[in-house]
Amino acid sequence: MQSCDMFVLLLVSTALFPLGHTSLPLVINTWPFKNATAAAWRALQSGGSVLDAVEKGCGRCQIEQCDGSVGYGGSPDESGETTLDAMIMNGDTMEVGAVADLRRIKNAIGVARAVMEHTDHTLLVGESASVFAENMGFIAEDLTTNNSVNIFSQWLKGNCQPNYRKNVFPDPSKSCGPYKPSATLKQNMRAQHANTHSHDTIGMVALDQDGHLAAGTSTNGLTHKVPGRVGDSPIVGAGAYADSSAGGAAATGDGDLMMRFLPSYLAVELMRAGADPSAACKTAISRIKRHYSEFFGAIICANTTGHYGAACNKVPGFSQFHFMVWNSESDAPRLKSVDCF
C-alpha cells in the first residue's frame, strides 16, 4: 500500500476510532463540590464501578450537606419538612433508579440505586419510597436540623414569602395558607424568582478507563416549595442522562422550568450526532432560553472519549458557572468555570 493510502486510512480510522482515551477515567460534577469529586475518583481508583463512583460522590455531598441544598437539614418546604430527590443511571444498560419526595432517609442516592437494582421500577415517590427504603435496610432518621427549623421560622415571620403559589389567596385570618383558588384574583404570591441561593443540586457524570458511563443527581429541592413538589433532579433526561455509546450530562437550576425540556437527554443526543460537549451543553441551554430568557440554570456534558464542557444562562447575579473535574491529566480535583451567555 502506498504511503498516501496508508495516511488516508489512518485519518479515517482515527475519526471512527479515536486513538486512546487519554482523558479517561473522568469525574465531572456541578458546583465546587470538590470532596464529592474526590470521593467518586477514589471509588474508581480502588476498582469500583462508575455506579459506585456516582453513588459515593453524590453521597459525600449528602453527608456534608453541600451548600445546604443537598442532603438533610436544608430547603424546608411550606410545612417545614426537608424531603430528598435523587437518581442514578447506568449508561451501559440504560437502567435507572430514582426517588422523589423521600422522607426520613438521609442517603437518597443509595435508595435510588436500590430502586434500580432491586425492583423493576424506575421511580418511587413520597411515603412509599421511604417505606421501601426502610425495607431495604436504610435507617429512618429525622431530616430536620436547627438550620432548617430557623429557615422555616424566618419564612413564617415574613408572611410566608417567597412562595410558589399563583392565582390564589390565603386565609385572611392567617399570615399564610391555606390557599384557595380564585377566578378573579390574578396574583402571583411568589415574592422572588428562584435563584442560586434557594435551591441547588449535585449532578455527576463518571466514566472509567473502559468507557463505562454513569450519571446521577441528589438534592433537597426548592426552599419553601409546595409539599409534594418534584423538580428535575430525579427525572430521567432532565436532571441527568447517561448512554455509554454517546455520553453523559447533568443539569442544575430552576428545575420546574428545566424539566420541561429534558436538557440532559438533548445534550447526550447532540453528542451522539457529533457535537462537541461544550456545544451540546450550550444548545441544550439555548432551547430553554428561547422560552424562559431569565431562567437560572446550567448543564455539564462529557462524551465517551472523556472530553467535557458546560454552559449556563446569564442572569443578574449569575454570570459564571463553576464545576469540578478530575481525570487522568490531573492529580487532584480541578475547579473549572464557564462564562454564561
UniProtKB/TrEMBL annotation:
The keyword Signal applies. The active site is at T201. The keyword Translocase does not apply. It is an enzyme of class 3 (hydrolase). It catalyses: N(4)-(beta-N-acetyl-D-glucosaminyl)-L-asparagine + H2O = N-acetyl-beta-D-glucosaminylamine + L-aspartate + H(+). Transmembrane segments: none annotated. The record marks D200, T201 as: Cleavage. One of its GO terms (cellular component) is lysosome. Residues 1-22 form the signal peptide. Keywords: Autocatalytic cleavage, Hydrolase, Protease, Signal. It comes from the Eukaryota. InterPro entries: Ntn_hydrolases_N (IPR029055), Peptidase_T2 (IPR000246). Substrate binds at R229, V230, G231, D232, T252, G253, D254, G255. One of its GO terms (molecular function) is N4-(beta-N-acetylglucosaminyl)-L-asparaginase activity. Belongs to the Ntn-hydrolase family. Cleaves the GlcNAc-Asn bond which joins oligosaccharides to the peptide of asparagine-linked glycoproteins. This is N(4)-(Beta-N-acetylglucosaminyl)-L-asparaginase. The gene is aga.
